[in-house]
């Protein structure tokens, strides 16, 4: 390989561009094990980071640090969750009945999705809204101030499908190649709605080339 040639890192969760002469030990942040998809939840098996939203799931930062590589990783097999015994399932279902969020038919992170055998029982609406105490007001987190970034400060682009390191002084309307999304995950197919490309394997999904150009963005949620 020529030292000045740029390559795209093949580690899961990275995909940054690098050269052989600029590839220090801590330049790559990645996931070293494959994802788990179960009951609408997306989870990285290596670090247990999870999300229901597929776009947010892909944006979860890697849990390992190392050097960039052009070698495609082999993801480890992930076992499906073992079903709960009957007694444990009954106990869990009873907990769902007592949970106000489950009774309203919403997804509950403590108990999972509500089984069809349990009828949703909506809570009675309050006649008057509860008053906020001074203690509640004190506990409200302050709105974080927007971070001021130096034009020469290296940042990582968080646009889906990019992941490149950039500086604001070099940023322009065609600097970034990315997927505007949203990601599509349905009937064992993975793909992007923006370019209508769908594949079966997750590794293939991660290598679908970006379809749109625009500005690099280190904080796409803002």
From TrEMBL:
Top-rank taxon of the source lineage equals: Eukaryota
| Molecular function in Gene Ontology | Hsp90 protein binding; metal ion binding
InterPro entries annotated for this entry? CHORD_dom (IPR007051), RAR1 (IPR043316)
Region Disordered, annotated ranges: 117-143
Q: Provide GO CC annotations from the record.
A: cytoplasm; nucleus
Q: Name one GO biological process term.
A: defense response to bacterium
Where in the numbering of this chain does the CHORD domain appear? 9-68, 157-216
Q: What Pfam families does the record tag this protein with?
A: CHORD
- Where along the sequence do coiled-coil regions lie? none
Keyword Magnesium among record annotations? no
| Keywords recorded for this protein, A-Z | Metal-binding, Repeat, Zinc
Its recorded name reads CHORD domain-containing protein
Protein source organism: Aristolochia fimbriata (White veined hardy Dutchman's pipe vine)
């Amino acid at each position: 390989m020529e030292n000045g040639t740029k390559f795209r890192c093949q580690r899961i969760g990275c995909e940054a561009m690098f050269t052989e002469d600029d590839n220090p030990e801590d330049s790559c942040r990645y996931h070293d094990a494959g994802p788990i998809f179960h009951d609408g939840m997306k989870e990285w098996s290596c670090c247990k980071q999870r999300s229901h939203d597929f776009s947010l799931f892909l944006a979860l930062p890697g849990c390992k640090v190392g050097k960039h590589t052009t070698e495609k990783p082999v993801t480890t097999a992930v076992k499906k969750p073992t079903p709960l015994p009957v007694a444990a399932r009954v106990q869990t279902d009873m907990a769902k009945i007592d949970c106000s969020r489950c009774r309203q038919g919403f997804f509950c992170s403590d108990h999972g999705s509500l089984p069809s055998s349990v009828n949703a029982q909506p809570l009675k609406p309050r006649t008057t809204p509860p008053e906020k105490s001074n203690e509640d007001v004190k506990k409200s987190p302050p709105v974080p101030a927007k971070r001021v970034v130096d034009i020469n400060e290296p940042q990582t682009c968080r646009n889906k499908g990019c992941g490149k390191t950039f500086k604001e002084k070099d940023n322009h309307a065609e600097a970034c190649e990315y997927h505007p999304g949203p990601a599509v995950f349905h009937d064992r197919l993975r793909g992007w709605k923006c370019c209508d490309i769908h594949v079966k394997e997750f590794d293939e999904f991660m290598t679908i080339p970006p379809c749109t150009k625009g500005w690099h963005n280190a904080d796409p949620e803002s």
